[in-house]
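protien #1 (seq + structre)
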Amino acid sequence: MRFWGSVDAICRQISWAYAGSPGKTYKIRDFDTLSSLSEKAITLGPRQETWADCPDCPKERVYESAAEALQHLHSNHSRRVTCGSKGLRPFDDPSFVWLYPTPPGGKDRTSVERVEDAVNKFIHHLLELKATVEELHLLAARASKTDKMEKTPPHSQKLPALFGELASLHILKGSHLSLLNRLSLPATGKDASGESERISRQITETESGESERLNLAKNLLEGIKSDIIVLTNTAATAGGLGAEAVGAEFLILALMLDLQSRPLKIPKKVKDGKASRSDGEMEVVETYQNYVAKLHIQANRRPQKRLFLDINAVQEEIDALLVMGNCQWVVVNNFMRLIWPWSFHVPEPTRMDFHLIEDRYARSHMNKRATVDSDLLTLREKTTALKENVKQTVEVLEENHGKAIRVFTIVTLFFLPLSFVSSFMGMNTMDIRDMEHNQTIYWTAAVPVTAATMALALINFAIFKGMAPVNSGSCLCGACAYSYTDEPAMKVTTSQLTTLPHLTFDKALCYCSTCRKVSGGTNTTNFIVPEEKFKLESGQPKSFDTEHETGMTITLYFCPDCGTTMWKEASAPQFKGVKIVQVGTLTDPTNLTGKIDVELYAPERASWLVAVEGATQKEQL
């Protein structure tokens, strides 16, 4: 409707440019005979007056202006009572077609030429578009439909956008011609010059809009041409209803894929209102998403170590689903290879036609299967993050509990001996009136007992504090973990020279080529740990041997899942009996304190790095 309305507006503006004039007189045409809506006389307005029933129209009354004629037309014949009122431009009124000037002609040639130039340019642009459209029509046309393999390509998705741009182009052209006609009207009012400038500015903006729409239409036509040639980005016809011939292979494939994609049957008593469907079915991913969401709520409201069991169970089930999905991929791929028509010595044409449908159907299902696998992987990552968050929250809560227990223990150590002595002294083995001792004997017994208890507690605390601390580390995913006792690195002291006489440092930065490639950065930070202090807690790390620049063999131990390198071993004599722990894998960041002893291969240090203050600078090991 808007398209044909814009065409009517263009024709009306052209008519005004040739026949209309502010100084002309007008008459109303016989719309009874000109109208094609009915063979009988028609009425256009609320007064039920036809052209013949009107007291003025049959007498060919002459109106002094187009606005006056339109006012009569709308007041007596038309439903649009506002058109033709004072201040409205006649050439913008759709009812202007029922008027004709008397006498014809007499239009200003300058204004006519402006309209003619605009219309001629518009026609030229339309002819250019028409030539491209005809070319597209020839590209999409087919001589006959006898060949089953030759099918008309689907329509491009850009066609609706092209029609919208063409409609907008016609609407803008109608507005452009209307502005040109307004420019030809005599200026009235106080701001006559300002009105002319405003109209000229609007004409420029409209022309710019027309140029933009024209360029968009040309680009869309080129895109449609490319779609037809390479058959890409076309509207899918599989979504519509249609009939296709299929064979037994397709039926087997459909049964197989239907069994793979069936939703879970959820009993009504365990259905979860918002997530469940009315028919009691739920997708696999949806089921686990709901359960993981519940675990998130429990972890936020009441974090407990018990949640680790539930999270681990969910992760195991998700892993099983991923393995099952991989098996489904293998089954479908093997079946498609089995029914591939070119696997036979002589491909049958009918089998080739059937295979096109089977391949399209299988690809559609496998795309959905890929989406499910992607969702499951995302869910697996969420459970891993949830597990880590619960772990951190539980550790924080346990730290607060430890402080409370410590305070309670201190108070107990002080008051418990006093309470014991008081209770012991309170046992009346004889009549209190016959006792010779006073309060002094209580303090004589209580103070030494309390002091002895506190001393024993402090001695035990000192012994416990003096025990070697346990430091732990792990890979990025947490599958492999290790620990070692004592300080973050064994400091080589005189007492240790009997066991590690070959070590001269314990914390080192290494800038050698091997370490740079291992870390993926400028260097590695290494802690030296004796083998007897080192322990693998979980996981089965993989190892990789590589030759160092010095000729010794470096063995890297890394996680098979995430690839994190946790420690190294070296065949050189100075590294015999030690593990070279990568500092970045330590779990507790407080273990990263201390001072670097030595920087190895210092000349190869990156230019933007500075030497560590106090560290020995070595060119090699």
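ok now protien #2
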Amino acid sequence: MKNNKKVIEMGFQRVNQGIFSHQRDCHVGLVFILAAMTCFLLLIGGCVAPPDYSDGLLENIPAIVDETDYFSLSLLGEDYSEEKEWELSLTSDSTDTILTTLVLADLNISNTDSSILFMMNDSGDTIFQPILLGNIVWSSDIAVNLIGSPKKILFKGENFTGRLEYQILKK
């Protein structure tokens, strides 16, 4: 009986070691592979690329370039309602000429929209004040001795939706 018991125990160990341990290894390997694939898919699938801005402008964030001979304001607005003011670094004397350009595009105007752009000189006088009502491409050359030296730009946005490009260039 002892021999039979030993054979049965040995056979059981063989079965236990042979078939079941191999299956256990397969299950562990399969679980590891599934966990690794899940992590990989979550990492790759969960990544979100930034939006593709072809012009570099972010919505409702004015982009400013302020130099001693150039000022630029660019805005891609979506119901933009803020008042912003910029002191100009532009230096000019009475013999200089100022080229001013304004481009308004893709405007979506309603009855509640009333956005205005101001340019003020060193005396505090308003020397340029367009009301932003429609698409326009406008430019003007004017002598500094006629208007004074530009010192401040003020934008009052009230539900502004569209694209604004405004530049001042000392010539």
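The CA atoms of residues 88 and 151 lie 5 Å apart.
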